[in-house]
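Key idea: predict the complex, not the pieces.
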Amino acid sequence: MAEVAATPIVATDAERGSEIIVTADQSLLNAIERFEPSSVAVGCRNGGCGLCRVQLLAGSVRLGKMSRRFVSIEMERERFALACRVYPQTNITYRLSPIEPRIPGNAY
Amino acid sequence: MRRGVLRPGHVQIRVLDLEPAVQHYTELVGLIETHRDGEGRVYLKGWTEPELFSVVLREADEAGMDFQGFKVRDEDTLTQLSRDLRAWGVDVQEIPAGDLDHCGRRMQFSTPTGHRFELYATKTYTGPWGISEVEPEAWPRGLRGIRVQRFDHCQIHGRDIEAMRDLLSEVLGFYVTEHVIDDTGKNLAIFMSLAMKAHDVALILDDRHGTFHHAAFYVETWENLLRAGDLISMTGTSLDTAPTRHGITRGQTTYFFDPSGNRNEVFAGGSTHYPDQRPYVWHDRNIGKAIFYHHQKLSEKFMTALT
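Result:
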C-alpha cells in the first residue's frame, strides 16, 4: 500500500495573516523564502547572523542551534527563534522579530 | 613604512557545531585539517601555507571571529612592536606559548574597531602541504573541494576605522591601498596591505561594533572561482554572492556562508601595489560598482548579515 502523504504543515504570519506550506525537514525560513520572499530579511540561513528572527506564538517546532547573540536563553524561553533554524512539527503561528538590519556607514 | 609585520597569519572562528564546520572548511573550502588541541579546537591550513595552521575553529554558542593574528619577523620584533603598541596607548596582553598548540607567545590587543588582533613570531614550520620544498611539483594530489591556496584576509566592521587605520599604519606598518569616502571626506571603508597584495585587512565603518563580515581564501584563477560556484551549488551551501568581480581590488570573488553563518569569500587575482603608489579612491555614491563591478549595486544581504 502506498504511503499516505503527511498532512501539510501550515505556518501563519500572525501580523500579515498569510499562510505558507512547510514541507518535512524544511526550515521556516526556507519556506518563507519560497513563498513570501519580501517579508523577511534573509542572511546567512545558518543560525549565525540573526536577521530572520521570529517569535513563535503557537505550535510545536524542532530547533537547530542559534547564535546566542541574537537569541538568548531567556528569549528562547519566550519562543524567539531564528527562522532558518525552526523546523515546524505542527501548524505554527509566528510573527517577525528582526534584529535591526543597519546598513554600514549610515550612507550606503 | 615596514615595521616587521610580515603577513596575515591566522584567524580563530567561532562555530556553533564543530564537526559540520570542519566538514565545510575541509570538504568544500579545501583546507587541510592539521591538528586538534586539548580544548577541542581544530587547526587547518591551505596547501601552500608554510606554517602548521592558519585557521582555528572553536565551538561556541555564538558565531563570529575570536581574533586575527599577524606574523612578525622574529621574537625581538615582537617585543619591540608590543612596546610600540603600548606607547600608542593600546593595552597589550601577552598570551604564553602553547595557548595555541604549535604557536609561540602572542601579543594580543583590542582594536578601535572592537576586535581582538594579535602578533606572533613563532609557529611550527611544516612547509607547504603535499609538495616538497626541494623541486616542488606544481600542486599536490588529493586536494578537496575548492582547493584554496591560503587564508588571505578578513573584513571586519566597527566604529572607529580611521583610528584603526592610524594604529595599523603608524605602529604596525600597514598602508592604505584603496578607500571609500563620502562627500565630506569621511572614510566609510579602508583597505590596507602589508606588502604587495590588494588588501591584508578590510575595515568597514559600522555601528555594529566588533563584528565579522568574512574570512577570505585565495585561489589563482577565474576558472577556479567558477568551479567554486559549481561546488557551492552542488553541495547546497548557503550562497551570498555568485562569482563576479570587485571594483575595489579588481579581485574576482564569490561569497557564501559556513554552517554557523560566518561568511566566507573565495578570492582570485586582485591588483598589486608598490610602496610609491597612492591609494585608489572610491565615492560612496558609486558604492555599488565599487563592491560588485558587474551588478553595480549592493545586495542587502551582503551589507547586513554579520556575525
